Write a sequence for this structure.
């Protein structure tokens, strides 16, 4: 790795986390650690920036695509545009994309039953069937050509027509028995996932996750704890895909002695070994979280979010 890449890898960002009232931080107990490890092992894979995702449509092969999740967590697909993918499980992304593609791929035709809803003007609500000539009849606007349009296109057309009778019309088109597009989301390749180890270790920096990585493994890969490290008060900062960091306390001294189980790390976890004990969130904010989160983790830890402190 060249010097510029190393420099980028170890740049820090100043993170300001607002709205934190002082609160005591409790060290994770053995049962807590076992429960968290079990939950991590049983949960389906969650997509991260850098993952390559293939989207396959059964009846619309021309729209098949393979994309990389961008640093902002989004993917771009034709013809639906940007969709948030990071933080979702593949099955969840499948559902999101099915809904989005249905807006542009489901074409209305003769005999389709449509409900036209006006959330703020319910007197205009109507339920109609597309006639053999492809039109529907609606109060105020009369005959409207609906056959051959998608629900999104029909919504746009009706919005234009109702502008003559109301200010900023809000219209929802609901199609009964709509045939949803069939698609599959496949994860083609996984991004190089990392955690960060900082503070009183020999080589602070990012550690790649290869297989199962636990807190002690990461600390050892960072050169091991320095003599000045306060092992009883190690801090684990975690984001559970909600952009709200959670702060846990770890007794690394007991983990190293085999007295309590070690915790399995997740991508973007931050392990920090302080010089002194940490008791309050306000102290963590002032002395530790400020300037220890790597720039690569910036999008995972929302700079304006609140911290959730896990206690007993």
């Amino acid at each position: 790795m060249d010097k510029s890449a190393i420099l980028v890898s170890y740049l820090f960002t100043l993170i300001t986390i607002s709205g934190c009232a002082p609160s005591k931080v409790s060290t994770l107990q053995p049962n807590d650690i076992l429960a968290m490890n079990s939950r991590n092992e049983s949960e389906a894979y969650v997509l991260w920036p850098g993952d390559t995702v293939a989207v396959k449509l059964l009846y619309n092969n021309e729209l098949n695509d393979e994309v990389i999740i961008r640093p902002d967590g989004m993917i771009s697909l034709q013809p639906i545009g940007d969709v948030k993918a990071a933080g979702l499980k593949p099955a969840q992304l499948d559902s999101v994309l099915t809904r989005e593609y249905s807006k542009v791929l489901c074409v209305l035709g003769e005999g389709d039953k449509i409900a036209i809803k006006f959330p703020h003007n319910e007197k205009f609500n109507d339920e109609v069937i597309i006639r053999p000539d492809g039109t529907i009849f609606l109060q105020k606007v009369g005959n409207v050509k609906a056959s051959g349009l998608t629900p999104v296109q029909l919504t746009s057309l009706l919005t234009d027509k109702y502008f003559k009778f109301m200010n900023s019309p809000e219209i929802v088109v609901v199609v009964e028995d709509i045939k949803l597009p069939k698609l599959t989301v496949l994860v083609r390749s996984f991004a190089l996932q990392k955690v960060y180890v900082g503070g009183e270790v020999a080589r602070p920096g990012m550690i790649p996750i290869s297989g199962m990585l636990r807190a002690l493994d990461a600390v050892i890969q960072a050169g091991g704890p320095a003599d000045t490290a306060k092992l009883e008060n190690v801090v684990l900062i975690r984001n559970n895909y909600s952009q709200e960091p959670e702060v846990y306390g770890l007794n690394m001294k007991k983990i190293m002695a085999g007295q309590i189980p070690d915790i399995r790390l997740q991508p973007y976890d931050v392990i920090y070994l302080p010089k002194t004990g940490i008791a309050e969130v306000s102290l963590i904010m002032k002395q530790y979280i400020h300037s220890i989160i790597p720039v690569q983790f910036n999008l995972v830890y929302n700079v304006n979010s609140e911290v959730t402190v896990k206690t007993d």
The chain has a mean pLDDT of 79.
